[in-house]
Automatic annotation (TrEMBL):
InterPro entries: PDH/Transketolase, PDH_E1_M, THDP-binding, Transketo_C/PFOR_II, Transketolase-like_C_2, Transketolase-like_Pyr-bd. SUPFAM superfamilies: Thiamin diphosphate-binding fold (THDP-binding), TK C-terminal domain-like. This is Pyruvate dehydrogenase complex dehydrogenase (E1) component. One of its GO terms (molecular function) is magnesium ion binding. Signal peptide: none annotated. The lineage of its organism: Bacteria, Bacillati, Actinomycetota, Actinomycetes, Micromonosporales. It comes from the Bacteria. Coiled coil: none annotated. The keyword Iron does not apply. It comes from Allocatelliglobosispora scoriae. Residues 7-180 form the Transketolase-like pyrimidine-binding domain.
Amino acid sequence: MTVSPDVSSSTNLAGWLNKVGIWSPAERHDWFADDAETTMHWRERPTGQHMELGIAETNLVGLIGELGATWSRWGQPLFPIGVLYDPFVERALEPWSYGIYAGGQSILVGTPSGVTLAAEGGAHQSIKTPSIGLEQPGCVSYEPAFAIEVEWTLLDAISRLGRPDGSSSYLRLSTRPVSQALAAVPADPAARERRRRQVIAGAYTLRTAAHPAVMLVGMGAMIPETLAAADRLAEQGIEAEVVCVTSPGLLFEAVQARSGLGEAPSWILDQVFPARRAVPMVTVLDGHPHTLAFLATIHHVRSMSLGVSRFGQAGALEDVYRYHGIDTDAVVRAALDLLG
């Protein structure tokens, strides 16, 4: 069951709505059914699997909290997925958190997110939501960079629903067009499965270096800039390893477990951040920079954390990235500063 607050078309749910329809107590006439140019068909009927709430984010999280509790109340699990603009996660935070506290297991999808939504002005740019995902109890947060990662993390999130040891999930997504070839997903089945396991565990090495001088750690929409910075550094004879983070929260839990402050699995730290490859680190995300700053504590390396810490602006994407210091030039400068 999907739920949205008046953003079904702008959050790319049209294909899903065409397939499953919109829930209504009784079937209602579709006045645009004869329009051959309509790409989204608004068919309301009792068998529909999508619920539209209008502009009411608090109602949305209240509803998915209730739908997500049917497994414990009636023995019949539902898989509720709520979709809203990421900036409005903060508007719905208190009732969403309470729903999780009360046992409602659901999936919340915030999209589009960050200053990558520059075309819509500063009011529609989310800065603090990566921190919310990291810190919310009873919830696993993901920020995938590529479509295949969205598939893997969404399936993992669904697998956590409707069970006594389950949890809610939060996916922070972007509508920025990104070349899927950059994902470099391995063709070998075993290597592909290893990538999938790392993605749902929190991070993976996107580009290796024989003798890395610096590690560039990016997340979500900032992966193209991270890879471009690695290319620029390579032109100067500086090898950079590139890591793609998919869940800061899971990585933080792994770091805490290593210190005896939790029971989360920590094998992902050995695979992606091995001690033998500990080098200065630059982190970058389309959100507050402190979200990834803790990664440098794994091996106590020198680091610089790039991100967004002031209100956004309307403008071309490259200009907004430059304004916030998260463009390719900023990543290259940070790496060079660390290397002296």
